[in-house]
Amino acid sequence: TIEAVIFDLDGVVVYTDEYHSRGWRRLCDDQGWRFPEEVSDQLRGVSRMESLQIILDSNGVSATGEEKEEMAHRKNEYYKTYLQEVDESALVPGAVDCIRELRRRGVLIGLGSASKNALTVLRGLGIEELFDQAVTGLDITRSKPDPQVFTLGGQRLGVSPERCAVFEDAVSGVEAANAAGMISVGFGPTQGLDQAGADLLVPDYAWLDIDAFLAGTLWS
Ligand code: BG6
Ligand code: MG
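That is the input. Now the predicted structure with magnesium ion docked in place:
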């Protein structure tokens, strides 16, 4: 039985994944670099500095540590500007209802996000009280696909890994959940979640039968 569900934030609860992409695209425009669509998916779940490195590599450019710090900072400033526009319309449809349904059934809810802005997003939307525990980019030293963010979440919730499920839109996040020994739910339209080893693919919340999910009959 599942006793806790840990949700990723960007792309699973809120469409802030699109704002992250916008921030990186703007940085690329500043620099005269390309920002191909497939790179956008590769940045899901990946920390700010590692995201920048992926973009640098895909453009075949190098930068000093100081230049990288400045560019990562600039992207974050863009991102924070976009966050000011975030309201309920940016919530992934059905996410809050799903969390409320799970809570009603006594399931503990965690947040497991690589983002250092995660709590700002939750507070801005007034949904922080839906989460019993939140682990964010400020709490971790290793990025997804490392399991740290979810392992720590499970520990804080007091639930053993095999009784935790993780909702993730990122390939790196599904890999992290699997590495943590948790049930991995690949959420949304990202390519490659299946190949990454997701135990269950959930295209959207309308698809999800919560009772069947908690009973464990949706995956083998
Ligand atoms: C993840 C996003 O949730 O957080 C990534 O999927 C993002 O795209 C990462 O780079 C880090 O976010 P932040 O807010 O710390 O730059
Ligand atoms: Mg995500």
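The longest strand covers residues 108-112.
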